[in-house]
Amino acid sequence: MRRFVVIGRLATASADFSLTNLPASSGRLDVLLRCLRAALLVSHGLRRDTIVYLVLLGGPDAPRTVRVDGPTARFVRPDERSLALMVRTALGKPLEGPGFTTIRNGIAVAAGGLDAVLADLGSGARYLLDEEAPDLRGLALDAPDPVFFLGDHLGFDEATRDTLRRIGATPVGVGPVSVHADDAIVLVANELDRREASRPG
Ligand SMILES: C[S@@+](CC[C@H](N)C(=O)[O-])C[C@H]1O[C@@H](n2cnc3c(N)ncnc32)[C@H](O)[C@@H]1O
Questions:
Q1: Whole-model pTM?
Q2: Residue among 164, 135, 162 at smallest CA distance from 6
Q3: How far is the CA of 71 from the centre of ligand 1 (A)?
């Protein structure tokens, strides 16, 4: 299983944003929704081997994390408005205590941020996507169940970097140019796809 964790420093954890003015009303949740699309959706389908965590650190209800599970998610559409509606509906439901509450097939929400994600992750190599880091093409990337952490349009704050350092996340880059987080996800997924396709057996 592949996992992508996107940290939205201002992205709203409440359901009170406007679908017609998403960037301005949601703390740039649109950035995270594009990451969700990039990680989970392929032409004519969903990646069943991928789980995405959107960590929402903005607004009075923060922190909250929305988890979308590729193996079980259904009716996930690629357009930003549909994804926004899906997340807004999930954020509007009551949560049932610690950990992730399943809202519907493949969609779960937790009342927590990076801490909730770390508690939910199983074993597996951790990678921190960082512009300054060595290129991931130089890495074996063959450990099962890799987890990739990304920043939003503002990048990581220092506390998040410290936590990721503490858990031993390996910094990796996807090339010499700082790209949008969703594009960084596509580059990682493509690299993993190529490695898997060329592996014998
Ligand atoms: C738009 S970038 C953040 C830019 C922000 N101004 C900063 O300085 O961190 C969003 C995220 O995408 C990932 N990213 C972008 N370009 C990358 C690259 N060349 N290598 C690795 N990660 C990258 C990083 O996780 C970054 O936090």
A1: 0.97
A2: 164
A3: 27
